Amino acid sequence: MRVLNSAPPRPGVDRRRFLGALGGLPLMAGGLVACEAEEQTPVDDEPIELSVFWWGGTRRAEATEKALRLYSEQNPRVRFRVTWQGLTGYYDRLATQAIGGNAPDLFQIDDTVLTEYAQREIVLDLSGYVADERLDLGGLPAGLARYGQVDERTVAVAAAQTGAALVYNRDLLRRLRMPEPRTGMPWRDYVEWAGRVTRASGGRVAGTMDPSGDYRALWLWLRGQGDELYQGRQLGFGSAELLDWFELWEVARSRRATPSAVLVEQADTGDLAHQLVVTGHTAASFAWSHQLAELQHDTDDELGIVSLPGTPAAQWARASMYWAAFRGTRHPGVVVDVINFLTTNVAAGRILGVERGLNASVPVRRFVADGITDRAQKRLVAFGAALDDLLGPAPAPPPKGHAKVRTLLIAAAESIRSGRSGARAATSRFIAGANAALAE
Quick one: 127 and 7 in the same domain? Predict the structure, then answer.
C-alpha cells in the first residue's frame, strides 16, 4: 500500500458497511443509501483521502501513481492511498473488501464483472454526472462510451481502448519466406495459411495458436456471421454454431496448423510469458492489442499485429478495463472528478501512455500518439488507427456468469484437443453448463 501526497487523512471517515455481498448473496435491498452530503453542503477545505486499487505490473503502477500525483498537485486537499497487484487473486481481494465494507473509492475492473457489479450496486451510477457533464465522455468513441453502460446506465468509464489482435512473428515469417497475415483474412484462409507456415518450418514451428477455447476469437467469429456471444442473459448462439467452430479447429489440427495440446493449455493460462508467439512455438498468437509492447519485450524478433481473421466489423471499440467508483464512497463527486481527470486531461494521458491501451478520449489519444517513440507502441497506435473506421457497433457488456462461461469454453476445447471427448459431446456439455451459469 502506498500513500500519495502528504496531507493528513480526514478524521472520522469510516467506510459504510457493505450491506450485500458478492457471489451468491442477494442484491442489496434498495441499494446503499447514497452519501450526498458532499454535494448538498458547501465543499470545505479539509483534506480528503481516496483509496485506489488496480491490477497490473510495475510500469502501470508507476504511470498511474504519477498521474494521481499530478491530480493532487492541482487539487492539494486530495491525496490517494494506492494499492496494486497482479491480476491473479485481484477480484477475490476486491470482493473481500466489498463484503467488509472496505471497497476502494476508485478501482479497476473489466467487462468480466461489470454487469454483476452494476446489478449488485457495488459500483456508483455515473449517469447523472454524465448528464450534467461533470463527467465528460464527449471525447470517447460512442461505442466505447456505451460499453460502460449496463441497463442504459453509465456505471464505469473505459480506462483505455483495446482490441482482439493477432500478434505474429514478423522476422520468423521473413526467414521462412512466408507472407504476413492480413486484416480481413477469412478464418478458413487463415487456417490454410497457418498450415503452410508449419510446413515451411519443417514442423519446427506451428503456424498458429489454437484459439478454440478463446472466447474473444469465438465472439468475433460469431459476430462475423451475424450472431453474438450473448443475447441478454442467454447465449446468443446454439449448438450448431459452436460445433462449426470446434470443427474448424479440428481441421486445423489435422493439418498441423496448431501446436500440441500441452503447449496450448500452457498458453490458455493467459500468462503473457507463455504466449506461444514469444516462446517460439507458433508464428502467431491471439492477444489484446494493448499487450503488444509487453509481448515484444519477451522476444528479440520483431512482432507484427493485425485484427483477428474475419471481417474487422466484428470488432468494436472495446474497453481494455474500466475505472469504477464504489457505491458507498464518502466523496462521490471527488472520485468522479478523478475519473474525469484520468480520462480527459492531456498531461495525465501522456503520463499514462498506452500501457492500458489507447487513451479512451480520442483528442487525448492524438496528443499522446505524437510523443510515442517506442516501436511496439507505435505499431499499437497504427493498429488502432487503421481499425477505427472499420469497427462495428458495441454489444452489451457480458452478463453475470461470463467468467464461468469462459472457463467452460476452455474446458470444452481442451477435452476435444486431448481426445477425451468428441466435438459433439463437448458442445452439448458446454451449452448445458453455460446456460446454467447464466441462469444463476
Answer: yes
Bin 14: left if φ > 0, else alpha if -120 < ψ < 50, else beta.
beta
Confidence of residue 100 (pLDDT cuts 50, 70, 90): confident
Q: Tell whether 51 and 125 lie within a shared domain.
A: yes
To 5 degrees, how large is the angle CA 96–CA 97–CA 100? 85
Distance of CA 65 to the CA centre of its chain: 20
Grid cell in block for residue 406? 469462459
The pTM of the full predicted model, rounded to 2 decimals, is 0.88
Tell me which residue of 360, 380, 364, 402 sits closest to 145, measured CA to CA: 360
- For the chain, give percent helix, strand, coil, nearest 5: 45, 15, 40
Residue 383 domain-assigned?
A: no
**Same domain (yes/no): 118, 178:** no
- Which amino acid does the sequence have at 135? L
Per DSSP, what are the bridge partners of residue 307? Answer: 165
Q: Is residue 393 part of a domain?
A: no
Same structural domain, 83 and 142? yes
For residues 313 and 402, what is the distance between their CA atoms, to the nearest angstrom? 23
Q: Do both 152 and 183 map to the same domain?
A: no
Q: Note whether 296 and 3 are within 8 A (CB).
A: no
Q: What is the dihedral of CA 409, 412, 418, 421, to 10 degrees?
A: -170
Look at residue 130 and tell me if it is in a domain: yes
Amino acid symbol at 352: L
Q: At 232, list the grid cell.
A: 441478454
Same domain, 274 and 334: no
| Same domain, yes or no: 138 and 170 | no
The distance from CA 428 to its chain's CA centroid, rounded to whole angstroms, is 28
Q: What is the pLDDT of residues 11-61, one digit of tens each?
A: 333 323 333 334 433 333 233 333 343 443 334 578 999 999 999 999 999
Q: Kindly report, residue by residue over 305-356, the tens digit of the pLDDT.
A: 999 999 999 999 999 999 999 999 999 999 999 999 999 999 999 999 999 9
394 and 316 Cβ atoms separated by less than 8 Å = yes
Close Cβ partners of 281 (under 8 Å, ≥ 6 residues apart): 205, 206, 259, 263
Tell me if 386 is assigned to some domain.
no
Q: Are 287 and 357 in contact (CB under 8 A)?
A: no
Among candidate residues 355, 373, 391, the one where a domain is terminated: 373
Is the per-residue pLDDT at 170 higher than 60?
A: yes
Q: How many structural domains comprise the chain?
A: 2
Pair (123, 171) in one structural domain: no
